[in-house]
């Protein structure tokens, strides 16, 4: 969609930013030219080629809420590795714990005491008693889908229209206008017809959820408590509680993916709204930058799994991973949760996000933009529509790829990194008011260039 009408001006502004980027990033360009030899599209993972600008920024070093690139440009980082570095870059307690552990060995196929401490901290925060660890949130989600099918004997997974849960096959489906499940546009190498595996329902639509569950085919409802990957879509009052009741009524395993919504507080939206999911999925944040994912289970679900599997075959069928629960990530989680991502840190981060939102709103008001801004704890995002979206489809319809790329590149050229493919900003424990003011100045300037007469 084109949320911004003057495409010629947008093209010109983008071209100006592109030229400015080329002038100020010669060393990143040199690296990119070398990278084109040994890597596909010159990037270590293909989605990195989607950053705006002719080649990506090469990072030299980072600390807290800031990083410096190979050209010596300095940035305030609101992307924070799209939540992987939500604790700020290289937080001291995590660095210390990781240095200590790596010198003592990092992976054994055996547990360490840090695993007990990490699981206990998560149990305390999220209220779910039984935890398992993976290397990513994607894997944690996959494992939960396996277990859900296993204990219910059902084949389908329910998801929200325009959700994202990592590279999980079942989740790359959307609803067409007639309400049918269809593969998401350009879904690379889809395994089988997604109608076989997936039912898609709109966010905030309990009737659609009940219709799906009443078929008796749905093993699990995998969802974020607020959508965060198509802009932010907040739950309407009663939606989460209603979903909880429906899952209970139809014995559908209710999985809350809190990978991003952990921004709501130390126990995510689960704790904030006193929700009782069957399982919670986490990833990215909890290792303070070290790869790790986790899922927590109720006692009852852990029992259902235990009594329907047997020891000899416990490693057959898609749940596992040699490096899962390794000593290094366990040391990182323990230090990060107990010393970095503390309840006190969350309080500060949330206040900064309130300020970030107020600044964005100020610009929206000043220029009378038909845009809006939403927040989940320490995460904020603006979108190109006048009111907060209620469904993923509404949020998707407000997208404007070129406008977003311009705003992103304008930010990079002013020393600000926003989450790519979004208008999203995250506050870390190291972010401060000056950082937030830095974003305000860029945002106002970028909007002024778009709307000045
Ligand atoms: N769940 C959610 C809600 C996410 O936003 C993401 C990644 N953006 C994932 C899972 C997957 O995380 P990862 O790529 O680290 O496995």
TrEMBL record:
GO terms for molecular function: pyridoxal phosphate binding; transaminase activity. Keywords: Aminotransferase, Pyridoxal phosphate, Transferase. Its cofactor is pyridoxal 5'-phosphate. This is Aminotransferase class III-fold pyridoxal phosphate-dependent enzyme. NCBIfam families: PRK07046.1. Signal peptide: none annotated. It comes from the Bacteria. Belongs to the class-III pyridoxal-phosphate-dependent aminotransferase family.
